[in-house]
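::Encoded backbone::
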Amino acid sequence: MLRGGKDTNLGKNSVEKSANVEEEYKGYKTSGYITGGDVTDGLDIKNLRWAPRQGFERLVFDVFEQSEEDEPGSAEPVDVPGYFEVSLPEAGNDIRIRLSGYRSFTAQIPDLGESKIIKNITVSKDNTLSDSSGYLVDVQLNSAAVFRAFELHKPGRIVLDIKERN
């Protein structure tokens, strides 16, 4: 479910793609971006989980309130994740996740040793935001892929499914 989110293609119109390609990747985007979450502030990605699934790989971002510095571990999970944008260029080799309203990213990058699709994940501050409340998560892929992204509520999570492009 995308609450108030957009689902838009970047580049060429998807109408040009064959019916076979659209059917093969039903529910997945070959390029473009998906947005979701609520505009808020003071969030933390506390856990980042990876799991292979049948035919795709999944990343799950667990969203919490930012911990008070004097009370470590006091953070609670949020009901709805903060604003996010997941994008994949036409080449399909790298996925970028832009998180807005997140003051911390305390999660450890999961061990991707058995991943057939994901090569590496890097996290950096998003310096384009004037209040430094964002992060960029770059997911480097081994080859071209397709994706779908959605949010889950109570507790708030961002879910990214990645499937190899044939």
